[in-house]
Each structure stands twice: as C-alpha cells, then as structure tokens.
Amino acid sequence: MVEGVRARRKAERPGEILEAAFEEFVQKGYSATRLEDVAARAGITKGTIYFYFENKEQVFVAMVREFSRPLHEQAEEFATSSSSTAPEFLRAYLCYLYRILATDPRSREIFRLLIAEATRFPELIDEHHQNFIGPVVKRLRQSLEDGTAKGEIRASSILEFPELLLAPALSLNISMLLFSDRRPIDMERHFEIAVDLLLNGLLPRPGEEAGP
Amino acid sequence: MVEGVRARRKAERPGEILEAAFEEFVQKGYSATRLEDVAARAGITKGTIYFYFENKEQVFVAMVREFSRPLHEQAEEFATSSSSTAPEFLRAYLCYLYRILATDPRSREIFRLLIAEATRFPELIDEHHQNFIGPVVKRLRQSLEDGTAKGEIRASSILEFPELLLAPALSLNISMLLFSDRRPIDMERHFEIAVDLLLNGLLPRPGEEAGP
Amino acid sequence: MVEGVRARRKAERPGEILEAAFEEFVQKGYSATRLEDVAARAGITKGTIYFYFENKEQVFVAMVREFSRPLHEQAEEFATSSSSTAPEFLRAYLCYLYRILATDPRSREIFRLLIAEATRFPELIDEHHQNFIGPVVKRLRQSLEDGTAKGEIRASSILEFPELLLAPALSLNISMLLFSDRRPIDMERHFEIAVDLLLNGLLPRPGEEAGP
Amino acid sequence: MVEGVRARRKAERPGEILEAAFEEFVQKGYSATRLEDVAARAGITKGTIYFYFENKEQVFVAMVREFSRPLHEQAEEFATSSSSTAPEFLRAYLCYLYRILATDPRSREIFRLLIAEATRFPELIDEHHQNFIGPVVKRLRQSLEDGTAKGEIRASSILEFPELLLAPALSLNISMLLFSDRRPIDMERHFEIAVDLLLNGLLPRPGEEAGP
DNA sequence: TATGAATGAGCTTTCATTCAT
DNA sequence: GATGAATGAAAGCTCATTCAT
Asked: Which residue in D32, D171, D190 is closest to C31 by CB distance?
C-alpha cells in the first residue's frame, strides 16, 4: 500500500512541479525565476526537479505545454453541434473564446509568457500556433465562408485574416496583463460591445433607428 | 574646441547607453540582459553605465521613457487638421496609429517589454498609459461622439470602449512579436481589411452588392 | 556508515568556515576581508559559505560569537573554590584573567576586531559585555565588597569601577595588538608588577623596607 | 588679490582633506571609507585628493600624523614647571594625560584606528610610539625614579613598566570606544578613583581609618 | 526517488585610480 | 589646480546544475 502512495506520489510530482513553476514564472518571468523557489512551492527540493526535467528551459517548455493543453482541448471541444446560422455560430464561438482568452487567468498569463519569451522559445510559439491558434482560425474561416456563401455574412475580405475576430479578446487580454487589478473592466459588457462592433460595424445601417 | 568633443561626448553618452540597452533588453528581456553587454554595445565599460544611471532598473526605466517619447509626440502630433467627417478622420487616425503600433519595430518591441515586465514596473505601465494610451483613447472617443451626433456613425455603445478600434493594430502587433519574421504579413492589406471590418461589420448591409 | 562521513562533514563545515574567517578577519579587518579568501582557507568555494551563512556580516557575527564562547566559559569556570581571603582570591582571579586576556592570542585578536568594528556591530559589543565583561566585573565587585567588609581590603571607592583591576591586563593586551612581535614583553613579570601595584599602590607603606 | 585667495586656498586644502578623512575613517574604518565621500565632505572632488596625496594609504597616514601631532605637542608641553614632589607631579601629569587620552574624542578615535589598522600600518604605530608614547613613558619613569630616590614613592619594580600608570586611562578610553554613548561614564570620578588606586593600592594601609 | 551540500560561472555593483580637459 | 568622465579589477552574492548519499 505504501507502494501505492509512493507510486501515486510519483505520478503527481511532475504536475505539481509544473503547477508551482507556472506560479513562479508568471510572477517573476523566465529568467528571474529560481528553480529553488519552484521546488519550495511544490514542497520538494531543488534536486528533485532535475529528476523529472532536464533543466530550467525544459521545465518552462513543459509547463507551457501543460497549461496550453486545456486551451487546445477546450477550443476543440466546442462541438459543431449548433448547426445554426453563421452569425449565431460566430457569436457563440467568440463568446466561448473570450472566456478562454480573457477571463481565464491562466490562459492570460501563459500568453504573457509567450510574448515575453517568444525570442527565446520560438518553437514553443510555433507549437502553440499549430495546436491552438491554427485550429481556431481554421474554424473561424470555415464559418465565415459558410456564412458568406449563404449570404448570412457580408461578402468581404475578412477571410484573409479571420483572426481579426479575436482582436477584441486579445485587446482585453493585454489590458488585463498590463493593469492587473488597477483598472477593473466589465468583461461581459466588453464582449457585448465588441461583438456588436464586429457584426454591425461603425457606419450607420440603413433603416436602423438611432440610439443604442 | 577640443573641449567640445568631451562635452558633446558626455551629452551623448546617456543616449548611446539607452540605445544599446534597448537592443539588449529587446533581445534577452530584462532579467537576462547583462549590463556588461549593454556597455560593450555602447562602446564603453560596465562602470561607466553606473556613472549615468543608478542601477539596472533605472537603465530600463530610462530606456522605456526615452523610446516611448517619440510615440507620445507622434500620437499628439496628428493635427486636428482634417476637419472632415468622423469616419474619414477615424480612418486617417487609425491608419496613423497602425503605422506606429505595428509597423515601427521600436514601438513594437517596447510593447513586448511592457507586457513582459508589467509586474515588475507597474508605475512604468501607468506612466505609459497616461502619456500615450490615454490621449489616443480620448481622441478616439471625441471623434466617435462627434460622428454619432452628426449621424455619421451608428449609435452604439462603443463609446464605452473606444480602444476597441485599436484592437486590430494590437492584434497585428502581437502577431509580429510572436512570429517575428517567420510569418510575414501584408500589413497594408491587414489594415484595409481591419478598417473595413470596423466600419461595416460582418453582417450584410441592406442594399449592398455581394462580393468584396 | 559512509553517510557518516557526509553528516560529520556537514556538522564540521560551519566551524571550519568560522575558523578560516577568524584568520582572515584578524589579518585584514572586516571590510578588507574577502569571503573568497575565507572559503579558500577553509578548503571550499565561495558559494558554500552562503549555504551556511546569510552574508558577510553574519559570518563575522557568528565568528565572534564562536570565538567568544570559550572566553565566557573560562571566565565562568573559575570556581569559587578558593575560599581564601579576598586579596588571595583577587590575585588568583586576576592571574587567571590575565592569561585569558593577554596571553591567549585568539582572545586578543577578537578584542581588536571588537574595537575596530564597534561602530558597525554595536549589538555584538553589548552581547559580549553581557556575556563576558559583565560577569567578570560582578565577581570582582563581590570580592572587593567581601574583602572590604572583612577589613582585608582598604576601604576605597574602587567599588564604583571594579574593572580598573583589569586595566593592566588591558594595557598589556593593547600593547601586544599594537606591536605584535616587534616589542616582546615578559608577561609574567608584567603581571607580577601590576598586581603589586594594584595591591600596594605607589606611595610608601609605613613600616615597609625600601627597595623591591 | 585673487591670487592670494587661491594661494591661501591651496595651503588649506590638505588640512581640509585630512579633516574630512578623519571623520570618514573614524566612521567607517580604513577599508570601508570611500575617497569620494572624503572629497565630498571636504567640498572638492575625488580627483583633487590625488593632487595632494599619492593614494588612499597616504591619506590615512597623513591624517594620523596630522591628528597625532597635537598629542605629541601637548604631551611635551607639560612643562617641568611644577618642581613639586613626585607624587604631586604624577597626579598632575596623569590628570593631564587622562584628559588627552580619554576625554578628547579625536585622540580616542585615532587610537581606535591605530588598533584596527596596526597590521596594515606597522610603521605608523612605531612612529606614534616614538613620538608620543615613548616620551611620556620616559617622563613617567624619570619621575618614578626621582620619587623613589627621595623616598616619596615606594620602592617597587614599577620602573620596569611605567606605562602601567596609564592603564586606567587606557581602560576608560577603550570603554568609550566600545560603548560610545550607550554607557555614560563619570570621567572625573573615574580619574579620582584610579589615581587613588595607583597611589595607595588595594591593601589596607597601617594606621589608616576605615571607610573611603 | 529524493535530498541537499557543493560548485563555479556569472551577475550587479563598487571604487581606487587615471587623465584629458 | 581642479574636475569628472572613464576605467577595470575586484567583491558580494546568486543560482543552475551536479552528485554522493
């Protein structure tokens, strides 16, 4: 039975280390983070980390992978279920992505780390793109194409940059990264307004009443 | 006259140091940058940096200030000249900001550093917001208000988040930070499409022909 | 058993470091001592010192404590055994203290460091006073009081400054600190003459023969 | 006339530097003192010090010399005027030396520096001994010899260590160095009791009444 | 598996000293 | 005479990494 505990222990260790690493890397950045602090936070000692990971870089890489996976999965999870119209699908999908990109503190902080360390870990960026951004953009494009074909969506060149639909979420994300809790934002309202902007644009729509 | 060389030299030193610091901080990040490398790049020795700056943090702060100033100035510079309609002004202003935010490599990299070190230098972020972001958002809001009043712009709630208009530029900026030269982007096209999206939205506009 | 070597090693390290620190601090003084030299002398490397001590100041403090302890213990050790007369006790006690203060090179050098760094480490001085000087003075005063009461000692005001009895030892100590080996002193003789002075004074004693 | 000011200025500079050096060396010790601080205190800049002195060591040496000279002079000054009895002379002379050694803060602090840096500047110690301690001890010995010859002083072996008469002053000096202002001492009283001890000793004197 | 003592390269910072002006 | 910019050799301290136990 003690074996069992130890075995379970062993299986959990890497995850615990990465969890601790996430906290430390987020707080201090890659270079300023001390593996000793990571170890302390994980309730182990420095040496143990080297049993599970090759070095500090690999801890970082593994951590980013670990904390990106839920993102990938969630992004994929969004079933093609709702066979509604394109605008309806886009609204729902964007709402879903908003929640991931801007609301979830973990995704947000991972994002900070990716931007900060993009030069040091280019492969990690590419990996992240392939796993997360790529599929999302692909699905956005698909929906845009379908919608355009059906006339539900205005024929435009947005197909060239479907990621533009994510810009508002990105903007919110960055704001929160920069100002932390110093400038609170009403995220629900932000989303509503952003979607309204994306769908209807700034110019007045013929036959539309004035006033919001 | 010979004295002039020295005096000129002295006056230029801080600037040269900050120039070198920019390159190094951008390449390695704050923590991983060695002042010795900064000094070497500036053609001086380590000790000299400490003659002009208190410590590494102050070098960083001074560098960000130095490289942010042109941004502030450019952003302010945009004269209220064009007394055209709001949509025309917005298009021109956004184009102008696009060029700053996404095209100018220096602004772009300063941005990376701000995101990366937002936790370590919160005052710097606030300063940057007050000097650059604040005025820009203010001007955007003004234009949106004017346009809405005149009916040139659709009455919407965007007044609550005028910075949404910058989201596409931000998105482009981040893309370039992440992928550097690995994923070239046609910035002009990106801008055109983004503006079209912002102005007209995704939904088909009654009475509009199909196709881009 | 092999483990024993390591454990024993670990237990001995701090002592070895302090031993080396003593030599270096004595030779160079606090500020001019390099921890790297301390490490080398202890047969280890710089970093190891920081495993056992917080910083240079703490090495110094720990060293003084370590090398003062024997003093405390020796001073206390002097049993109240000899229940002889006060003059006899004082002679024996002073002889004992002489040996500690002036003869023992370690005590002597610790003393130099305390004087030199009194401004930087005032708490250390106070600690030393409480542990070593205080008890000694207390015992001297006690003996002086007893002797005065019994008429063995001339009634005088020396009770106000019992430490005056240590002045000769102190004088010898300082001489040795100043001149090192450049001015050899016959310590035994110095002691005899000092005690004679303390006991009998300079003025001729009625009924005493002339000549030493 | 401007010449005159400058000339006077120049003549005073070294003294001003040494004055400043004294303060700094006393406060921080030799090694921890920065010549830049000395310069600032003297109202000049670092480089100027090197115009008047070869290096930091020479500044220290010159400072000790400068601040020892009054000691030498004072010690010599004490005229052979008072052609009184030996005990009277000794009391007066010791009182005089007490005032120098223990009361004058400058002498006191010079003494700390000599003890602290005795290893680094042995020649300075020897110089000081020759100029100050030597003459004083010589005069003490002379007086002791005279007094003994005249029967005014008890024949003893104190002639071998006349400096023992200075031990109480030394003791007071060290106490003040160690405790600064943390343990105030009544110096007048200390002196009285010390002289009483030196003259009369601890043992009861036949035919003397009890009580101080 | 896990520990933690030990290493040593490297970092920021300091400061005596120099020297062109 | 005086300045102060510049140097460069440390020094204190840190920390990723190793490895005997």
From this structure: D32
